[in-house]
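Data availability (excerpt). The following record was deposited with the supplementary files.
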Amino acid sequence: KPLLARLRAPKYFPLDYKQLCFSEYEKSVKDRAHFPSLFIAKKGTHVPLHTDNHMTRFWVMQLSGKQHWRFFPPSEFWRFNPKSSERQYYPFMFEADTMNPDFQRHPGLNGALGYETVLKPGEMLFVPEAWAHQVFTIEDSISVSANWVDEHNLQKHINFLEHTMQYQGPRSVRRTKRRLEIYKSVFVPFSRPAKSVMDVNPTWDVFWKRHFMKHMSVPEHLDEWIEKGIDKP
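Predicted structure:
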């Protein structure tokens, strides 16, 4: 079987507002989102300290090999010499290397509050929005990961979009405005699936189907609005 057919979406994260689709016309949305992501890394691969974009939280599932993860809350960012600009809502990249710390160049590293784990096959890691993380590949590895937005980080994601919109071109601004309309509509946030639904890890087809408005119960007067689609002017 293809790899995607053998994978299941984690039952702990049943909804992703970024994946909301509104009609058959919009099936391409999830394709452009590259969701989920597949990572293949050789032994010794090093991912520098960074945060993920859009104020999204993420999970990563280790399929093979081992990886050493270190991650840090935003309160510790000042220790890592963040690279930032006025366009950035929060730092994405940092100068410090927490795997091989240089305390003379970055004295703030001394006393940093962080967490670490060695992720092994069959294990999954959750990292909150805006947390910095660094990864070292101990063995040749394959993993699957996905960023998402739910009711817990929805407002932070909205704030991020409103900030970055001022630096976007006209077409991107239209898409962002449409996305903000969706997030601020009367039917978002959604109720989480019933516990009986959350007791199983769904296939990706089932997971995606949850995010098409045609399969959800919404007020009738919103049907025309939904049919416009997110990418239509």
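Summary of structural features: The CA atoms of residues 47 and 135 lie 5 Å apart.
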